[in-house]
Amino acid sequence: MNFELTSKYRELIVWFFVFCLLVSLPIRFYFLQKYEFETALNKSKASSERTLKLLSRRGKILDRNFQILAEDIPAYEIGIQVNNFSFDPSHISLISKILDIDSKNLKNKLSNKKRKYIVLNHNASQDELNKLKEKKIPGIRSIYKYKRSYPEGEILSQVIGLTNFENKGQEGIELSVNKKLSGKDGFKKYVRTNKGEIIETQIIPPNHGQDITTTLDAKLQYLVYQELKKAFDYYKASSASAILVDLKSKDILAMANYPSFNPNDRRGMNPNLLANRSATDLFEPGSTVKPLALAGLLQEDVIYKDIIIKTSPGYIEYEGFLTSDFKDYGTLNLSDVISKSSNVAMVKLCDKSNSEEIIKNFYKWGFGKYINEIFISNREGYLPSSADLSAREKVSLCYGYGLQVTLIQLVGAYTALFSNGQFQGLNLISGSYNVNENEIISSEIAEEIKIMLSEAVNNGTGRNALVKNTRIIGKTGTTKRLTNQGYNEESFNASFIGMAELEDKDYVLGILIRDAKENGEGGGQVAAPVFSKIIKSIQNTL
Amino acid sequence: MNKINKQSFLQRIFLGELYRNYDLKDFDWGIIFSVFFLTLFGIVMVSSVSLPLTEGSFSFIISHISKVIIALIIFLLIFRFPTNFWSKVDIQILLIAFFLLFLVFAPIIGQEVNGANRWIRVFGFSIQPSELMKFALIIYISSYCSRRLDEFKEKWLGFWKPILVVVVAISLVLFEPDLGSSAVIFVVALSIMFIAGAPLRHLLVIFSLGMSVFILMILTVPWRMKRILSFMNPWDTYQNEGWQLSHSLIAFGRGDWFGVGLGESLQKLHYLPDAQTDFIFAIIAEEMGLLFCIFLVALFSFLIFKCFYIGRLARHANYYLGSYIAYGAGICIALHVFINIGVSSGMLPTKGITLPFISFGGSNLLLMFALIALVLRINFEISESFTNKTKILNV
């Protein structure tokens, strides 16, 4: 080989080779980044990086005296690892005994070899966990968590509501103020060295949820609930609801339905019982709206307070339909119309006004629209529009047919009536909402109506609501229950809405007993006595 | 030849006897600054890696800094003497290196670590004689080639005599065994001879011979074969052979382009073996990110090509000894950088080669500072020679 390179070119070749070596490094970095990093990071996470959730506590729900209505308590999710264990039959029976699971069911579950881990109980107590741990059953695992507990149980369950298994609001106040109540979980990131030491790298502390104070009074709630229960049994009703309001503050003190459910025991829970019927159940209010309709007519000036109405012969044929009273009351003044609850008189009075005004009046009282924000689900009810209303339908509105309301709307309207005609809504969450005063009727008319309602209790249909030495005013209502097949002539909604002036404060109380089958059927016979009993038991606690 | 009379005591101490005045331009500040930066960064990284390993004790850091100080003393010592001085004592240095290499296998003094005898222990210091052998061979080959330029090019024996020395040296290093260092010595020696004008056919023969030996060494030793295979796909043997490389790649991955931050490495926490020595670059990648890694590679490249440039200048000044030494030093540094980074980024099979100036470990640090001292001295001498060309060859 005669070919020789000069030094200059030999040097250049070395420069070139070394340059190639060095440049290959960044190129390698690039391809490493592009093709290997994902695998590398996954491997790293799997081998040494861990994230631990720091549980946040959900806010408590308190009553007006800061008694706990709902709170988070520690609980455990207990599960069992299935894949590696063959189960001792005695272990299975132990687990089924301690956690109260059907042992056959459990055996089936555990024999499913496809699943590696089976949750035995989502919300086991510390006690149950300790018992299981004592038995030293292989494969048992537990995860610390929070579980919602309702100390007041079934008496408040429909108002307070429920959380789901993730502890998020599902019903009632739990759902409506879920945002405030729920906290934000924090987390702790840590790495594990190859020697097993733990090094924390990042901690985000949990943000606990806010506590919610309601206007409810657990003590009064208990009284109301007990009385509803008694009435339910006595009258063999299908259900009963009641709402107790502090007249001055418009705070809802109690809101009860019977039958109810136990929120602490989810198994065998009847989903039909979840609804807070006092706010969601629609019914035709009947006579209870008569004072409100009358107040509207007076405010409208189409009638005057000294008006006298002939109701003989105890029925009236209006636009082809017959409206009748319980009996022939003869000639009545306004006060008698209310206390005797004369439908005939209401038909005659309402004939003087037009449907637009009547509906406007009801709308002002809060019918046909959602009550102010009370933080539980409620319904707007039904109020027909004036445009397509016949004269017949117009007059039946005045004695409470042809519109649908909820008990809470009715109680809200009466609260306004008793507050000199000022509508201010109701409160369920303390300090949550202030409704501007909204005058529906003048205070003079309101006072007139109150006197009439007093008469209705003392000498009229509401006699059974009386309590000794206590001023009670109020109105009964009895309506045929509307079913899918039209009106049920055998079944009634019995209601009574009234006010009691007790030593400490004035209470507004609304009672609705649905479908009483024994010992009476109308508002006067069924609902008014319950009113009286509740007021008496409140009196006894003072 | 007249010496400069005005030479101060300090100048005499640090620069030896000079024949002319000098100014600051005669030192290559680019090399000085990059070495300074790399060494400083090395101290930072060794601290970062070692602190969690030693539970906060400073023993590693103190040890590393003391080695840097020793390296600096060696640097000044080498820089003080004219390059010709080292050329004159090349055989003696070579003999010392051989002697120490033999000592590796001696009882008591020789240290066996992980089945390899790469270390000797004297006065509490562990020394890697193969690093001294690199230094010795660079000087020996360079001075041989520059002294016998013609004989080396034309006579058969002239070429094979230095090769024989290299082969003996490599055999000893291979016997330790240290395949990585043998490869570095082999390539550095051949490169110097290539630049010096060795006949291509001889080079080709020796190169192919060397390659066959390497391949044989890999094929015949099972654990080397395993290493090669595991390097191709480290994840498959994650728990065994692939562990170190896997965690090195995890470190790269965690660092991504910008790094997890200085001191934040996870892989140094007992995951990545040799994190402060051979695999320190992986931790750098994890903590500082790939962009910084590219900057480091660029800085090393600057340093290496600066050495080459000085070698080229020296040849222009007909100062062949300086030229060969500078090239040898540059190639030696380049190979260390390439093999080390290549290994930790999974481009090359795992080899125990440290990262110059940065890795924990005294011997390599001494070697690198010694090489840089030689290169700086050569630069100093050629800048001298450009002002007074006649003097340099007569020292």
Overall, the morphology of chain A is elongated
Encode the helix/strand succession of chain B as letters: HHHHHEEEHHHHHHHHHHH
Kindly report the oligomeric state of this protein: heterodimer
Provide a count of the helices of chain A.
17
| C-alpha end-to-end distance of chain B | 9 Å
Number of strands of chain A: 21
Percentage of helical residues of chain B?
A: 55-70%
Task: Characterise the protein shown here.
The complex is a heterodimer of chains A (542) and B (395). Chain A is an alpha+beta fold. In chain A, 37% of the residues lie in helices and 25% in strands. Chain A is built from 17 helices and 21 strands. In chain A, the strands form 7 sheets. In chain A, strands 2, 3, 4, 5 and 10 form a 5-stranded mixed sheet that branches. Chain A has a 5-stranded antiparallel sheet with strand order 12-11-21-20-19, with helices on both faces. A 3-stranded antiparallel sheet of chain A has the order 1-8-9. In chain A, a hairpin with a 5-residue loop joins strand 8 and strand 9. In chain A, helix 12 (343-350) crosses helix 14 (391-398). The longest helix of chain A is centred in the N-terminal third of the chain and has 42 residues, at 7-48. Chain B is mainly alpha-helical and 395 residues long. Chain B contains 16 helices and 3 strands. Chain B has a 3-stranded antiparallel sheet with strand order 1-2-3. In chain B, a hairpin with a 2-residue loop joins strand 2 and strand 3 (125-127). Chain B is globular, with a radius of gyration of 21 Å. Chains A and B meet through helix 1 of A and helix 9, helix 12, helix 14 and helix 15 of B.
